[in-house]
Write a structure and sequence with these properties.
Distance between the termini: 83 Å
Radius of gyration: 24 Å
Number of strands: 10
Strand order of the largest sheet: 1-2-5-4-3-6-7
Largest sheet: 7 strands, mixed
Number of helices: 12
Shape: globular
Helix content: 25-40%
């Protein structure tokens, strides 16, 4: 007898891989699974931030290709079982057996520069799902032309180390349903196969726009921001096909946009919102952009949160009128601005208030009176300007301390019915 063709050997290996956890499936299902596995087009993608990683060249139905990677084409993070997936075909190959096994998959989308806020979302996802996918992708569509895309912190090694450490903690904690199973770290070419259409308002390309909620507040100041958010989230949801997705409350308008996206496009995804994680010392909301602040501006960055807290206090004392609630917040910000203006350039912190909002929790539309049965959202944004005159040896922050936009919010909870 002649030995089987190389194509048959590769196909058989793929069938064994995709059916490792589904050995009780009927032959008809195995045939479908193996055909999907071997029909993916060849591709290899070079990493943007991490070291070069060669993804497996997938065999097509008419030809066979060799691979320099491991047998299943899925790399792993160092010293961990976490898969590193860099292409859509690789992720779908990983995803298929979990779908057939009825194992829930959660997605935690990030742009890297991970901090305790991200990790808390991953912990929550691991408690509630069998598998957690963390995406790390700095989406250029979320940045305006004049924004900080080039200087956005890229901390791949640190991010990987945090994920590996967290996964070990999850493994030791018997309260979790699952662990971190995969990191999806695509290139822009992978996410925008037709070519990235650009960041201009009138760019041509395939976009998802959620209006009017995406046009208010942050959307008014950053007109392409939520278009970029909705577009990349639609892509990620379609690629990963998670049962649940996890976002932080700090980006409260973003959570409203994502909920509307899922509802209006009838996507079978549950949106889970985790609480805002804050610095235990002064309450500043954790953000990847905080690294830009440096010591001096970091000390004043809490002004927005302090203003929102003051407004919340008025609401809790029974006030429902917009003018009174926001008046307290605006007065506090103006007092701080006057205080800073009396300092010399080597001491003062300069910032600009963009907005403080009191909005409907479902639409982000501004309201004049808070409905006690519904509550509301207090939110705001400030722009921390660069240090005017640096002191000798002063730490100005990442990339020399450029202007930093900070956002924050507080949920005004509805009153409980007696």
């Amino acid at each position: 007898m002649h030995p089987p063709p190389r194509c048959a050997v590769v196909a058989a290996a793929l069938i064994r891989h995709t059916t490792t956890t589904t050995t009780l499936l009927r032959p008809a299902i195995l045939k479908t699974t193996s055909r999907a596995a071997v029909s993916l087009p060849p591709r290899s993608v070079q990493a943007a931030s991490p070291p070069r990683l060669q993804s497996r060249t997938m065999a097509s139905s008419s030809s066979c290709s060799s691979s320099r990677g491991n047998a299943n084409g899925l790399s792993k993070l160092p010293s961990s079982p976490i898969r590193l997936l860099r292409t859509v075909p690789a992720l779908r190959l990983w995803r298929r057996p979990h779908l057939l096994d009825h194992r829930t998959v959660a997605l935690v989308p990030t742009m890297g520069a991970l901090h305790a806020g991200h990790l808390s979302l991953i912990r929550q996802a691991a408690r509630e799902n069998h598998h957690v996918v963390v995406s790390i992708y700095v989406n250029p569509a979320q940045f305006g032309i004049a924004e900080d895309l080039d200087s956005y912190p890229k901390t791949w090694d640190s991010d990987v180390a945090q994920l590996v450490k967290l996964d070990r903690e999850l493994a030791d904690d018997g309260q979790n349903l699952g662990r971190i199973s995969a990191v999806f770290a695509p290139t822009t070419q992978e996410m925008y196969p037709g070519g990235f259409p650009g960041q201009e308002i009138d760019s041509k390309g395939s976009f998802v726009t959620i209006t009017p909620v995406g046009e208010r507040l942050e959307g008014r100041t950053r007109p392409t921001f939520f278009r970029g958010v909705a577009t990349v989230c639609m892509k990620l949801f379609n690629i990963v096909q998670p049962e649940r997705v996890y976002f932080g409350q700090k980006d409260v308008q973003q959570t409203v946009v994502i909920k509307r996206l899922v509802r209006d496009f009838a996507m079978p995804v549950e949106v889970v919102i985790g609480r805002t994680e804050r610095d235990p010392g002064d309450g500043l909301a954790l953000s990847s952009r905080n690294v830009y602040l440096g010591e001096r501006r970091r000390g004043r960055a809490t002004v927005l949160y302090e203003a929102l807290r003051a407004a919340e206090g008025v609401y809790k004392r029974g006030e429902r009128r917009r003018g009174v609630i926001l008046g307290v917040a605006n007065m506090l910000v103006q007092d701080v601005l006057r205080e800073e203006s009396r300092k010399g350039p080597e001491e003062r912190v300069r910032f600009e208030l963009d907005y403080i909002s009191l909005a409907d929790p479902d639409t982000m539309e501004e309201i004049e009176v808070v409905d006690p049965a519904k509550g509301g959202i207090l939110s705001g944004a400030i722009k921390m300007l660069p240090v005017e005159k640096a002191r000798e040896g002063e730490d100005l922050g990442h990339s020399g301390g450029p202007a930093v936009r900070l956002i924050d919010n507080i949920i005004l909870e509805p009153e409980e019915k007696n």
